[in-house]
Design brief:
This protein is globular. Helices cover 41% and strands 12% of the residues. The chain has a single domain, classed as Amidase signature (AS) enzymes (Alpha-Beta Complex), CATH 3.90.1300. By secondary structure, the chain is of the alpha/beta class.
Length: 449
């Protein structure tokens, strides 16, 4: 196991390492060229106060050692941090007043001892899986030091902060894959919990139906810890061996159009898991192909973002990223009847898919079907941008529509660009998904992933 947040926490609690020293290292990492577009704003002073408090607790039997031990956690520029503006990666809100109080998720991180280091860059208003931001620059994917590649979005800067060592974990959101896409493209772990388990108060909404507050981490066990903090609940992850879980592969839709690197990594991963005794069965899920028809009028994100942005677009539309504004404005064409039909269609679709998944503990799929393309390929080409965006969102957004839970973990060889394996299930099977992911991560490490 690499040096993850839990290992760093143990070192702080034992006095082997200081939280202040680890925070200094994170700050140095944030100042490197790799992070030139990662943060929208930083708040190191309050982070240092949290780190000092953690070191005091480690040296005193009278003070409690908190779960996040003064370690660096970045916050997507979507969540309120008391005393700071929240701008959603946009210029439209840059003149807004500072937040009066922390968002609920931020408050839970702070209470757990996190050293909150800064607001991270993101796709404007979280409306894209690419990670492109014309206002603050697009954070380059650190997985390829030679070719600037997209980071994935919308939690782009959050993922880069973790991948470069500028944070141990990143608070973000996932509406159609915004945690899992950048995690997959950067070789990290991203867990999207069942949406209702984590609070969204104090966060700029994209889709009030689909938004989920969750985190990007370095390991699956870190994902368990962050989920416990954010959801204020204890995960009961059954530590059964890999062979004790019954796993499915979705034959339909999710394996369509894989590029060579993803296809090879996915096939190799399945074989390695089978070598470790995993029971994996391929199943048909024709219901997945129905989503394009169900969302033909625009979907929840278009309708619900239009409700939030319509006045701002009328007044300040020229300051929006045109690609984001175009997607939001699609919601203007949806009628109330369209929206009600969508709600009912989703409910019926969820029931159909859940019936198909009965008897399986989790489903395995590629998180996204492609590796990260160069930023240059999408920078000035709207058609290519929207093609890549649709590909990136296709697999993870299925889980959001299912109201389910999913974790992406890396499954590529060391000499490959990052590829994510998505472990997913329906609503409130979070602990099972986490338990299966722990077993898969252990098996892949054993096989020398």
């Amino acid at each position: 196991m690499h040096f993850d947040l839990i290992a760093a926490r143990s070192a702080v609690h034992s006095g082997e390492r200081s939280a202040v020293g680890l925070l200094d290292a994170a700050r140095m990492a944030s100042d490197t060229p790799a992070n030139r577009h990662t943060f929208v704003r930083t708040f190191w002073e309050q982070a240092e106060a949290a780190a000092r408090a953690a070191d005091l607790a480690a040296g005193s039997a009278a003070l409690p050692c908190l779960p996040l031990a003064g370690l660096a956690v970045s916050v997507k520029d979507l969540f309120d941090v008391a005393g700071q503006p929240t701008t959603g990666g946009s210029r439209v809100l840059q003149d807004g007043a500072p937040a009066a109080q922390d968002a609920a998720a931020v408050a839970r991180l702070r209470a757990a001892g996190a050293a909150l280091t800064g607001h991270t860059n993101m796709t404007e208003f979280a409306f894209s899986g690419v990670g492109w931001n014309p206002h603050h620059g697009t954070p380059p994917n650190p997985a390829d030091p030679d070719v600037p590649r997209i980071p994935g979005g919308s939690t782009s800067g959050g993922a880069v902060s973790v991948a470069t060592g500028a944070a141990w974990a990143a608070l973000g959101s996932d509406t159609g894959g915004s945690i899992r896409i950048p995690a997959a493209l950067q070789g990290l772990v991203g867990f999207k919990n069942t949406a209702r388990l984590t609070p969204l108060e104090g966060a700029i909404p994209l889709s009030t139906t689909l938004d989920t507050a969750c985190a990007i981490t370095k390991s699956v066990r870190d994902a368990v810890l962050l989920h416990e903090v954010l959801a204020a609940r204890q995960v009961r992850a059954n530590r059964r061996p890999l062979r004790a879980w019954r796993l499915a592969i979705a034959r339909d839709t999710m394996q369509d159009g894989l590029d060579g690197t993803v296809a090879n990594a996915f096939d190799s991963t399945l074989q390695r898991l089978r070598n470790q005794g995993a029971q994996i069965e391929q199943i048909g899920l024709p219901e997945l192909s129905q989503l394009s028809r169900i969302q033909a009028t625009g979907g929840f994100s278009a309708a619900e973002s239009w409700a939030w942005h319509r006045v701002r677009l009328e007044v300040d539309g020229e300051r929006y990223d045109p690609r984001v504004a175009q997607r939001i404005r699609r919601g203007a064409q949806m009628s109330a009847a369209d929206y009600i039909d969508l709600v009912h269609a989703r409910r019926a679709w969820i029931a159909q898919v859940e019936r198909q998944l009965e008897g399986f503990d989790a489903v395995l799929s590629p998180t996204v079907p492609i590796v990260a393309p160069p930023i240059a390929a999408i920078a000035d080409d709207d058609a290519e941008f929207f093609r890549v965006n649709a590909l990136l969102l296709r697999n993870p957004s299925i889980v959001n529509m299912l109201d389910g839970c999913a974790l992406s973990l890396p499954c590529h060889a060391p000499d490959q660009l990052p590829v994510g394996l998505m472990v997913w299930s329906s609503a409130l099977h979070d602990d099972t998904v986490l338990a299966v992911s722990l077993a898969i991560e252990a098996a892949l490490l054993l096989e020398g992933a």
